[in-house]
Amino acid sequence: MISEISNIKKLIKNTILEETQIIEVKIPETNEIALAMQVDIDNKIEAWKIMRKLLSQTQRYPVIVACWFNQGENWADDVINNDLFCRFEYQHEPSYNQYQNTVYKGLIAQVDEINIQKFLNEKIEISLAEFNQNLAALEQQNPEDLFVDLSYLQWYEPINQPLVLLLLPIQNCWETLAYLHWYGASYIGSDKVMAMLKYWHEQYAIELVCHYGTMLQITVKNKPKTFKEALQLAIEQETIAPCTTILPGISLQDHACALLKTDHWFLHERP
């Protein structure tokens, strides 16, 4: 794993990141560090793609984050003052007592112990009859002729917030949530959300690109291929992040249709 800024700079020579500012950010309660790269609203996605391609060399998964608090005149100070790795929110999760003596890597280790199908069976509220009713309605349509409004899945663009491309000491996208808290995990536990993201990575080759506290912005390489698969995925997403569809007023069927078409997911859960 690369921890020296000078070695990162060698890798990004002759790219748009060549002159970018990079700082070291200590991760509390560990001997680990993250590397923070300064990006802006225009170059952040291209920057993420560059560092994602270099993952095998850096051994650090990249994710875009925003600094929401204590904004000043200096980007580096903003990054440090935002306390990106604060553990406070983790302490309020329902499963906190199970991993209160573990941090980061210990929390990640919990993921493989979770039976994701058992978890979904316990959490999903839709009945088999309701599932089949929705599926029958969907299957009356031709997937090729679907007109789907994807505007509600448009990625959020932070304006006037300092942006960071954070290089974390992990190699898998779902492990990000062991370091950066996502609001949706407050109700079900970060370990469960990570297990869900891992499952989706295995099924759909997802990658987490942006983590904005209440919003997760994800690319998907392998879209669901059938209405049944898309409907099941829509239910899973509503289980993890109900605000994704509730706030824009999107029906379960419409969300399933959108997931057949889009290669960008937007998961939202807020107070």
Nutshell version of this structure?
The protein is 39% helix and 15% strand. It has 271 residues and is α+β, with helices and mostly antiparallel strands. β5 (206-211) and β6 (215-220) form a beta hairpin.
Walkthrough of the structure:
It is a single chain. The chain is α+β, with helices and mostly antiparallel strands and 271 residues long. It has one domain (5-268). 39% of the residues lie in helices and 15% in strands. It is built from 13 helices and seven strands. It has helices spanning 5-11, 44-53, 55-58, 75-81, 96-99, 105-111, 116-123, 128-138, 185-188, 190-204, 227-240, 243-246, 252-261; strands at 22-26, 33-39, 61-66, 163-168, 206-211, 215-220, 264-268. A four-stranded antiparallel β-sheet has the order 1-2-4-3, sandwiched between helices. A three-stranded antiparallel β-sheet has the order 5-6-7. A hairpin with a 6-residue loop joins strand 1 and strand 2 (33-39). The chain is globular and about 55 Å long. The relative contact order is 0.15.
